[in-house]
Each structure stands twice: as C-alpha cells, then as structure tokens.
Amino acid sequence: MQTISHSQLLFSFSCRGFGTNAKTDDGHPSASVTDEDVNTNNAPNGISKTFLHNWSPPRYIWRGLSVLILAGQVIMKVFKGKIHGRNTLQQLERVGPKSVGVCLLTSAFVGMAFTIQFVREFTRLGLNRSIGGVLALAFSRELSPVITSIVVAGRIGSAFAAELGTMQVSEQTDTLRVLGSDPVDYLVAPRVIATCVALPFLTLLCFTLGMASSALLAESVYGVSINIILDSALKALRPWDIISAMIKSQVFGAIISIVSCAWGVTTLGGAKGVGESTTSAVVISLVSIFIADFVLSYCFFQGAGDQLKNCI
C-alpha cells in the first residue's frame, strides 16, 4: 500500500488549479500549463517528488515511535479520567485471576529448582542459617517479578497483540472511530491499566509460593528446618525489597501492555501480519523486560550488600 504525503496532495491540487485558471475568449478554460511543462521546467522537483513518494521509514522505526506515542496517549487519558470502566474490569479479571494458576505453578517449580542448586553447597559449608535469606532476597529482588512478567508476556501480551492486530486488519478500529469512540480509550488504556494493577499482586503471590515450595523442599530433602529458613528470611528482608519488586512488576506490566498494543494496532498484511506481530510483540516485550530489570536493579540495589550479615 502506497501512502501519499500532505505535500504531495497539495502539490497536485495546486497544479490542477493553476492549469485551469486561465480562460480563452469563448469562456472555456485553457490548459495554459501542461504536465509536460511542469516536468520540464521543474526537473529537480520531480526527482525529489518521486523519491519522497517511494521512500518510507523502516518498520521498526515507526513501530518504536508508535510505542512512545501510545504511552503518551494512555498517560493523558488516565490523567483526564477518560477510562472505560467496564473494559478495564474485564481486562483486570483476565490478567489477574485467570493468570494466577500458571504464574504460581511456574514460580513453585523455579523456586524448587533454584533451591536444589545451592542448598546442598550451603549445608556443606555450614551456612544453614543463610539459606532463607538468600532465597528471600533472590525471590523478592529478581525471580518473582521477572518470572511473573515472562509468564504474563507469553500469555497476555500475545493475546493483546493478536486481538488488536485482528481488529486492525479487519478495520474494526476504523469502525470505532466512525462511531465516535476513541480506540485508545476503549481498547488500549483498559489493557495497560489492568496489567499494571494486576502484576504486582501476582508477583506477591509468586513470591509467597516460591518461598513456601523452596522451604518445603529444603526440609524434606536436605534436612534444613522450615523455622530456620523463615527466621533467616525475616532477618534478611527489608521493606524496600518488597517495594522494589512491586515497582519492577508495574514497570514490566506497562512494557508488556504498551508494546503488545502498539504492535497490534500497527499490524499490516492480514492473517500473516497478525501472526508476525504477535510473535514480534512477545520477543520485544521479553527483551525490554530484561533491559529494564538490569536498569532498575542497578538503580535500586547498587549500595546493597550487607543484609545477609544478620543471618550468620
């Protein structure tokens, strides 16, 4: 599909108007300036016009810009209070309660796998009282928010991109505009709000179950008492560790929802384009989550490092 810029439209309109303004003696319009004259007298302009007509920015550039534009629009809608409440509640139920099962299951097995990796080594070194602190810090700072975001990106982000991509290629978003509804109010903002609200609670649930499964495995397999693990975790944890996990999960939720919605509303090419947008949205969301996790961890925990002293 070729797009025509405003300058090209204005150029063609001005040429038509200029060519029909002059009149002959019998009152009929005369073509005083023909297309050949325009092309001959303005050869450089014709070359630049053809170049601009055929050139289009790379897809990754305007898709990246669409993420920023969509994020700004959502922020403005939230500040103005233009939120579709019913859609927001529906998306909140979808992101939250309907995603709890897979998030908890993933967190439990990741926690047990993480426990297997280091509990035996710690027990051999006589550091049983540090096991709970290491588990608590690892889950609260990194594992719980990142694992929850990965699961939500695969389950919810792909659904967002597929739904909005299908609506875009079938021109349903244009129908909303014709009916007087703003697609950002009706489709995008509810999804972004629901993801940012639900993800912190999912992270807390995953943190709790991950710690519980790790403590049960450590006691049943390696003989480390649950009381020792819980006491060590309480001594190592600080309120900022839980707050940072909540902040991280909110940032990750915003990344997942905005990227997925932006990739959905910029879908082209029918069913094939919908599949490509869905896959690309999940990949970009995951890469963005890892980058944001590094940046936030560097900012939050650069001066940390003495919390395990209380567990020894």
Write the layout of secondary structure elements.
Layout: H1 6-19, H2 35-41, H3 43-54, H4 59-80, H5 85-95, H6 100-124, H7 131-169, H8 172-178, H9 183-222, H10 226-236, H11 239-265, H12 270-300
Helix pairs in contact: 4-9, 4-11, 5-9, 6-7, 6-9, 7-9, 7-10, 7-11, 7-12, 9-11, 11-12
- The total count of helices amounts to 12
Largest sheet geometry: none
| Terminus-to-terminus distance | 67 Å
Estimated helix fraction: over 70%
Bulk shape:
elongated
How many domains? The number is 2
If you compute it from the alpha carbons, what radius of gyration comes out, rounded to the nearest whole angstrom?
29 Å
Averaged pLDDT, please? 79
Low-confidence stretches: 1-43
Number of strands: 0
| Helix/strand/pairing category | mainly alpha
User: DSSP strand (E) fraction?
Assistant: under 5%
Summarize the helix and strand pattern as letters. HHHHHHHHHHHH
Summarize the structure.
The chain has helices spanning 6-19, 35-41, 43-54, 59-80, 85-95, 100-124, 131-169, 172-178, 183-222, 226-236, 239-265, 270-300. The chain is an all-alpha fold.
